[in-house]
Structures are given as C-alpha cells and as structure tokens.
Design brief:
This protein is an all-beta fold. It has strands at residues 3-7, 10-13, 18-25, 34-39, 46-51, 58-60, 68-73, 78-83, 92-98, 116-117, 121-126. Strands 2, 4, 5, 6, 9, 10 and 11 form a 7-stranded mixed sheet that branches. Strands 1-3-8-7 form a 4-stranded antiparallel sheet, with no helix packed on it. A hairpin with a 6-residue loop joins strand 5 and strand 6 (58-60).
C-alpha cells in the first residue's frame, strides 16, 4: 500500500513559480510510475505530467510543456512538480498519483490508470 501527501500549493501571481512536493510512504513507490493531475470545480481531472519509475521518461500536457518540470527522488520517496511562468488558467487542485506497475519504463496519462492518489493541494494563480 502506498500513501501520498502533497504540499507546496498556494497563491501566486501570474508569471510566478511554485514547487509542489509529494511525499510517499511505502518502499515500493520508488519502483512505480507516477504523475501529476489537476482538477477545477465541475471539470474532469486533467493530466499534467508523468514520469517513469527510473526518471528516464517524462511526458507533459501540451498546456504545461516548457513551463512545468516533473521529477522524482527515489531515495527520498518523493515526487515533485516545478511550475514556472504560471498562468491564471493553471489554477486548480493538484494531485499526485502512482500506479502499481513495478519497474514499468513508460508513463500513464489517464486518471483511471493510477492506483494511488494524494488528497490534493490548491494552487491559485492571480492575474
């Protein structure tokens, strides 16, 4: 079983930066592909970025490509999302997730493909 806890959200002006962290419990997290999603009221959860277990493969939604960077530190059981050049449309609750697929070298895009979720952290970007 893996438990995920996000932190680092907050209020930032447009053009600013935030770094989200996701702390994982359970020794197997380091072998799982992981990702970040976001959700606004009344909308479906949206893919943001994903990373393979080994950090060798990353993928991003077109809307964040070039501005956001996903990374992980398997020694610390942690996942990160560096968000730069933030825009008001990035405002959402951000969730980290992991899939129970040990040592899979690829990434996953759909929320239904993930087995473990954090509780979310609010990011608000003011104009």
């Amino acid at each position: 079983q893996v438990q995920l806890v996000e932190s680092g959200g907050g209020l930032v002006q447009a053009g600013g930066s935030l770094r989200l962290s996701c702390a994982a419990s359970g020794r197997t997290f380091s072998s799982y592909p992981a990702g970040w999603f976001r959700q606004t009221p009344g909308k479906e959860r949206e893919f943001v970025a994903a990373i393979s277990w080994s950090d060798g493969t990353t993928n991003y939604a077109n809307s964040v490509k070039g501005r956001f960077t996903i990374s992980r530190d398997n020694a610390k059981n942690a996942l990160y999302l560096q968000m730069n050049s933030l825009k008001p449309e990035d405002t959402a609750v951000y969730y980290c997730a992991a899939r129970n697929a040990r040592y899979y070298s690829g990434t996953y895009y759909r929320p239904g493909e993930y087995d473990y979720w954090g509780q979310g952290t609010q990011v608000t970007v003011s104009s």
